[in-house]
Design goal:
Blueprint: H1 19-25, H2 27-39, H3 44-63, H4 68-87, H5 96-108, H6 117-129, H7 136-146, H8 156-166, H9 173-180, H10 185-192, H11 217-226, E1 238-241, E2 255-259, E3 263-269, E4 306-314, E5 317-323, E6 349-353, E7 359-364
Antiparallel strand pairs: 1-7, 2-3, 3-4, 4-5, 6-7
Region (Disordered): 319-365
Length: 365
């Protein structure tokens, strides 16, 4: 099986000739990769389909003007990774590594650098970790806007971190605020989708949101660091959580026991379906993981009366996860004593629970 015939696309113009010409010029290397994949049990049709997908993507990258030397390194890395996913029977739209190659690389190709392999590894790790917890389409758009004029991976990690937080990765908030200080203003503006975007308005065309407000990104971040619920054009109010049957985390009304301004401690009644440890382990977005519950694990032990949860939230998103019961009392030391969820950052927001609501309700002061 030869990769040269795996994509009927004609040679593209631009700095690099495109996938077909590259594969013909590297026939020995390509055939060696495919021979090893076939020996490992990969199907010919599966390899053909994957390389056709990669070829279409790389033809677009070549047409966009990626220099030939950069294209050579990128095509080789994409070939190896795509074939490895086929061998592992993981080449499909839900696989993070597949998504990185087909959806992220076209937006970020110049910024991946002369040796794209480390950057592709970082991308795959990030996309895997945040799968199901952020707006993936929005994240790609912001990352592409931020790095549209970058030619090396110097700012890749920081830009991805900031853009991920902007698209809902609330637990990356601290890392994003720290990373933002190392980004040039055009890159930062693109990652935040604020008005002073990079030349050409790269951050202004995302279809998934209203036009970006004209604002100084560093001033916006400085104010948001003091007030996590402030953002230009987002006055609130907001709701956090929800009924599990509609995509939320809870099947009982949440009781808010306290908070510290960035996270909140919530209790719900346990249910018979929770089992002895209250550990059906289902969190938001269908995530399944260990709850950390302790005690009441023996056969015939009475189930706990309550389940406990930690909610992280700010203006860009929220994340709810089950938590172990506190060692003493009904809340950990970090959670404030007020049942209204006190926010220790002055002027930020009031968070409250309501008797007949599956949400926590946030109103900006």
């Amino acid at each position: 099986m030869s990769a040269a015939g795996s994509n009927p696309a004609s040679t593209n113009g631009g700095a690099a000739a495109g996938w077909r010409s590259w594969a013909l010029g590297r026939r020995a290397r390509v055939d060696d990769v495919l021979a090893r994949a076939l020996a490992a049990g990969a199907g010919r049709a599966d390899l053909h389909g994957a390389l056709t997908d990669v070829g279409v993507m790389l033809d677009g990258v070549a047409a966009a003007g990626l220099p030939a030397q950069r294209f050579d390194a990128l095509a080789g890395a994409c070939l190896e990774r795509a074939v490895a996913r086929v061998v592992a029977d993981r080449w499909h739209a839900r696989d993070p590594a597949t998504t990185v190659l087909l959806d992220w690389v076209p937006r970020l190709a110049p910024a991946l650098g002369a040796d794209p392999a480390p950057a592709l590894t970082d991308l795959t790790t990030a996309v895997t970790r945040l799968r199901g917890t952020v707006d993936q389409a929005g994240w790609r758009e912001l990352a592409g806007a931020a790095l549209a004029y970058e030619s090396d991976p110097t700012h890749l990690r920081a830009a991805l971190t900031v853009a991920a937080w902007r698209c809902g990765a609330v637990r990356w908030r601290g890392a994003a605020l720290a990373a933002a200080g190392h980004l040039p203003e055009p890159v930062l503006a693109g990652a935040l989708r604020l008005g002073s975007a990079s030349p050409g308005g790269a951050a202004s065309g995302a279809p998934w949101e209203a036009p970006p407000p004209a604002a100084d990104p560093r001033a916006v971040l400085a104010r948001n660091a003091r007030d996590p619920w402030w953002w230009p054009g987002r006055p609130g109010p907001w709701r956090i959580g929800g009924f599990r049957g509609f995509g939320g985390p809870w099947i009982r009304i949440p009781e808010l026991l306290g908070g510290d301004g960035l996270r909140w401690w919530v209790r719900t009644e346990a249910t018979p379906t929770d089992g002895a440890a209250g550990a059906d382990d289902i969190g938001p977005d269908g995530y399944t993981g260990h709850t950390g519950h302790t005690g009441h694990t023996g056969a015939g032990a009475a189930p706990p009366a309550h389940r406990y949860w930690v909610v992280h939230a700010d203006v860009h998103g929220s994340h709810t996860a089950p938590a172990a019961p506190p060692a003493h009392g009904d809340r950990p030391d970090w959670a404030g004593s007020s049942r209204q969820g006190p926010n220790t950052r002055p002027g930020a927001a009031t968070v409250s629970a309501r008797d007949h609501s599956y949400y926590l309700h946030v109103r900006h002061r």
